[in-house]
Specification:
The complex is a heterodimer of chains A (about 260) and B (about 190).
Chain A lengths: L2 H12 L5 H13 L1 H20 L7 H8 L22 H22 L7 H19 L6 E2 L3 H7 L19 E10 L2 E10 L2 E8 L16 E3 L2 E8 L2 E7 L3 H14 L1
Antiparallel strand pairs in A: 1-2, 2-3, 3-4, 4-7, 5-6, 6-7
Helix pairs in contact in A: 1-2, 1-3, 2-3
Chain B lengths: L9 H15 L3 H12 L2 H17 L9 H21 L7 H10 L9 H9 L2 H9 L2 H12 L4 H8 L3 H24 L1
Helix pairs in contact in B: 1-3, 2-3, 2-4, 3-4, 4-9, 8-10, 9-10
Classes of the chains: A alpha+beta (about 260), B mainly alpha (about 190).
Chain lengths: ~260, ~190
């Protein structure tokens, strides 16, 4: 495992979020890499220090007493924050809208942010694609629907994502369709087609046209590199697609061309 | 999913109360701790948890099994958000602008990872609480959920209603910000 991949997986490893196989290869890397070992030790030091010195507040007895009081079903208002009882707003609806706002905020905050010289949406998009790919590769199964039959894969996405993927057969060119999954880019659910080329996994993200950071119009021919991974953008028929892989960038560009040409 | 609008009789309410008590009282300290760290005030924290408890009773039926603590903390958090938006009229109560700003920075992260740093942590551990309290709310929240409540990424993602990838990146930034703040403190 190379250092860039390992550093991406250090925290999930530290937090016990990786499957045993991946965790073992991260640990093997740490054993051999002083930088990553220090990083891991720093995470542990932070955790230890928090455990030791960040106070954990306990609920005061007065609160416990308040909770024991009978809940009035009518009459005197019990709590200052309590909404009028006669029109109980459905909790789920309130929570859902709040949480939706929060999640949209999390995903789209940078759209509201100052449109400064920020690395901007396109960089965040690349970041999302890379994290999603690494996470999927790290997980024990990166594929939700396992099938090389595009007639099975495509309908599986119906109703799960906004933009249905094209699911093109490229086995003649050496790229085997192994299945697909639903993943998140920003706060949106998108279709990911998973191809294999030799030992390399290619994630093909099929994105809505208005995805922030999506370069409109012309796709660039070459690949961009982020964290040791290649990314290639192509327009495939009427959808926008980003391929992410640890393949050599030229090979990934060839995959992109085959994809665009096959449509 | 919308709770029925029939008014519950006293008995039904009693049943719900005892059911909810059994579910959430074991996690009362977790709820109070979270809100106390978010809201900075004892009185506000107690009011918010009390309100959250009433909500939990009212919407007891929405608990479909599973992790009671995560369900309860989600109610507590949403009650906190309601409280903040009432108090400030703000639509983005969790300092998302600050999240953005911090995300845009993304400097090469290296506030000094020397062995001395590690030794220093233990000596300066006391200032950690102060630095944590100064973190933007969205980051403070996620590091609390992970380090103090020891929730998994999935549980945090469900609670915050964000993708797991967002949990990962926000948590990494929160840790980075804490360490950077500490490094600055040491330098200054």
């Amino acid at each position: 495992m190379d250092c860039r991949t390992a550093s991406m997986l250090l925290q999930p490893c530290f937090d016990g979020e990786l499957d045993e196989g991946t965790a073992a290869s991260v640990r093997a890397h740490i054993a051999a890499c002083a930088d990553c070992a220090r990083e891991m030790a720093a995470l542990q030091a932070l955790r230890d220090a928090m455990k030791r010195s960040v106070p954990r507040y306990t609920a005061p007895q007065s609160l416990r007493d308040r909770l024991k009081q009978p809940i009035p079903s009518a009459g005197p208002a019990a709590a200052p924050l309590r909404p009028a009882r006669r029109f109980p707003p459905p909790w789920l609806a309130i929570a859902a809208s709040l949480l939706l706002a929060a999640s949209l905020g999390a995903g789209l905050a940078w759209r509201w942010g100052p449109a400064g010289p920020a690395p901007a949406a396109s960089e965040l998009l690349l970041h999302d694609l890379v994290s999603s790919h690494l996470r999927a590769v790290a997980a024990s199964s990166s594929v939700d629907v396992l099938s090389s039959d595009r007639h099975t894969v495509r309908p599986w996405f119906a109703g799960k994502v906004e933009v249905a993927p094209p699911a093109i057969d490229l086995s003649a060119q050496g790229f085997e369709l192994v299945g697909g999954r639903v993943d998140y880019v920003g706060a949106r659910r998108v279709a990911v087609l998973v191809y294999k080329h030799g030992q390399h996994v290619i994630d093909l993200f099929v994105l809505p046209e208005d995805t922030p950071g999506m370069t409109g119009g012309e796709a660039t021919a070459g690949a961009v590199m982020r964290q040791g991974l290649s990314l290639v953008h192509r327009r495939v028929g009427d959808v926008q697609a980003w391929a992410v892989s640890d393949l050599d960038s030229k090979e990934l560009a060839a995959f992109g061309d085959a994809l665009a040409g096959a449509h | 999913m919308i709770p029925s609008s029939r008014s519950d009789g006293p008995n039904a309410t009693d049943d719900k109360v005892s059911r909810i008590e059994a579910l959430v009282l074991p996690h009362l300290d977790a709820a109070y701790n979270l809100v106390r760290w978010l809201a900075h005030s004892e009185q506000d924290a107690a009011d918010i948890v009390h309100e959250a408890f009433l909500r939990a009773v009212r919407y007891a039926d929405s608990f479909q099994g599973g992790n009671a603590r995560a369900w309860w903390l989600a109610i507590v958090r949403s009650t906190y958000l309601t409280w903040v938006s009432k108090a400030t009229g703000s639509r983005a109560p969790l300092s998302l602008e600050e999240v953005t700003k911090a995300g845009d920075e993304d400097q090469p992260a290296d506030p000094g990872r020397s062995p001395e740093e590690l030794a220093h942590w233990s000596q300066c551990a006391d200032m950690l609480a102060e630095l944590l309290a100064a973190l933007p709310t969205g980051f403070r929240e996620i590091i609390l959920l992970r380090e103090m409540e020891e929730l998994s990424y999935r549980e945090i993602a469900d609670l915050l209603q964000v993708p797991v990838g967002t949990v990962m990146s926000r948590l990494a930034r929160a840790r980075e910000m804490l360490r950077r703040a500490w490094a600055e403190r040491r330098a200054g």
